[in-house]
Amino acid sequence: MNIRDKIAVVTGGSEGIGFGISSALAQRGAHIYLVARTKEKLETAKREIVEKGGKADICQADITDLPRMKRVIDDIYKQHNRIDIFVNNAGTYRRVTLDSFHEDLHYLDKLNSIAPRDLTHYLIQKARETRKDLSILT
């Protein structure tokens, strides 16, 4: 698959597996939008990609904040009229204590299943509106 000049969004793209995916896509010519919660990590990831000749932009957002994520997606569509690749990579594991069990379980459920599902539905709607192909990786 030729991904040169494709528009790719990677959630959790500032470190770990997400950064690896972002770097690999950028090395193959895609324009990457890194999405994560921590601005400093995003800036570091962008700098590393750009120093290697890639194209990257950053969007500070928590994927469990659906209204914010919709704005991120809408802004990218306004600028490029498309998103070609969307990687639902953001996720986490945390130890759950008995004291915080219900709160932690709710957040983990939202992060690892509800947010990706809701984002996928929104992305499909945007792709239908613009009649553009879209690859969603979850």
Explain the overall architecture.
Helix 4 links the parallel strand 4 and strand 5. Helix 3 runs parallel beside helix 4 (101-130). With 138 residues, this protein is α/β, with parallel strands linked by helices. The mean pLDDT is 87. It has 4 helices and 5 strands. 51% of the residues lie in helices and 17% in strands.
Sequence-ordered SSE layout with sheet pairings:
Layout: E1 7-11, H1 16-27, E2 31-36, H2 39-51, E3 55-60, H3 66-80, E4 85-87, H4 101-130, E5 135-137
Parallel strand pairs: 1-2, 1-4, 2-3, 4-5
Helix pairs in contact: 3-4
Query: Kindly state the mean pLDDT as a whole number?
Result: 87
Radius of gyration: 15 Å
What structural class is derived from the secondary structure elements? Answer: alpha/beta
Percent in helix: 40-55%
Number of helices: 4
Biggest sheet: strands, sense, closure? 5 strands, parallel
What form results from the Cα inertia axes?
globular
Strand order of the biggest β-sheet: 3-2-1-4-5
- H/E order of the elements? EHEHEHEHE
Distance between the termini: 18 Å
The parts where pLDDT drops under 50 for at least 5 residues are none
Content of β-strand? 15-25%
**Total strand segments:** 5
